[in-house]
Amino acid sequence: MNRRWLIPVAILVALVQIAFLSWTILGRAQILREGREIVLSVEPVDPRDLLRGDYVILSYNISRVPVSLFANTPALPENDSVERTVFIRLKEGGDGIWQPLAASVDAPAAAALSDAEVDIRGTAYFARWESDAVRVTYGIERFYVPEGEGRQIERDLRTRSFRMKVAISSNGTAQIKSLHDGETMLYEEPVY
Amino acid sequence: MASYATRVKGDIERWAKAGLIDAATAEKLSFDVSQRHRGVSFGVVLATMAAALFAAAILLIVAANWEMIPRLVRVGLLFALMVFGYVGGAWLKLKGRDTLAESVWVLAATAFGASIALIGQMYHLSGDERQAVLVWGAGTALAAGALCSRYLTAGAALLAIVWLVMELGEGGDEVVRSSLGYLAGAAVLYLLSFWTRSRHARHLLLLSLSLVAALNFLDQENLIAPLILGAFGIALFGFDLLRPEAAQKFTGLGSTAAVHGLFAFLVAGGMVQLLHVDTDGFVLASIVIFAGIIAALLLSGHESRLLRWLAYAAFIVLLGMLYVVMLGSMLGTAGFFILGGIVLSALAWLIGRLERRFGTAEGAKR
Question: CB-based contact (8 Å) between A144 and chain B?
Answer without folding.
Answer: yes
